[in-house]
Amino acid sequence: MSVEFISQNDQPADPALCALARRSIESVARCDGFEYPFLICVVFTDDAGIWELNRRMRGVDRSTDVLSFPMVRFASLDKAQYAPKKRDRDVQTGEVYLGDIVVSLEHARAQAQAYGHSMQRETGYLCAHGAAHLLGYDHETPEEKTVMRALEERALEQIDLKRIVQHD
């Protein structure tokens, strides 16, 4: 399993934040039952950076907390039915490139304060949320949202980042 980190504005990514993100992502993959070696790229940015990506990639002209860009389409959430295609794997490492997660640390700080919990909890949650999207989860319907939130919370509880206040 590989998680690569990119920090915009030529600032090195905070090692503690990277370790937290890695733990969150690994926990989501374990809870989901995804058993293949994988690669995810995490980009830490600010509100201006994520606003530009959101506008350019999704046509949504506003900032947000997290964006996910999946590279693999799963036929179902049952990963026992998944077998990586050759095109999904890195030729050198054999890892499945699941995609990219972009987190606005500016948004994360504001949300942590609004929800009354730590920056670590909020960043861990946003990385878990992004990883769940890369593994095929969504929250477009109430049923999907319930399933996705249960996965995120189970994964975060396993790394001692329990929810204090409900996310919508």
Describe this structure in words.
The chain is 44% helix and 17% strand. It is built from 5 helices and 4 strands. A 4-stranded mixed β-sheet has the order 1-2-4-3, sandwiched between helices. Strand 1, helix 1 and strand 2 form a beta-alpha-beta unit. The model has no long low-confidence stretch (mean pLDDT 91).
List the main descriptive attributes of the protein structure presented here.
single chain; 168 residues; Collagenase (Catalytic Domain); 44% helix
List the helices and strands and how they pair.
Elements: E1 2-7, H1 15-32, E2 38-45, H2 47-58, E3 66-70, E4 96-104, H3 105-115, H4 119-134, H5 142-158
Parallel strand pairs: 1-2, 2-4
Antiparallel strand pairs: 3-4
- Number of distinct helices: 5
Spatial extent as radius of gyration: 15 Å
Principal-axis shape equals: globular
Computed structural class: alpha/beta
Overall CATH class = Alpha Beta
Calculate the mean pLDDT score and round it: 91
Concise summary:
By secondary structure, the protein is of the alpha/beta class.
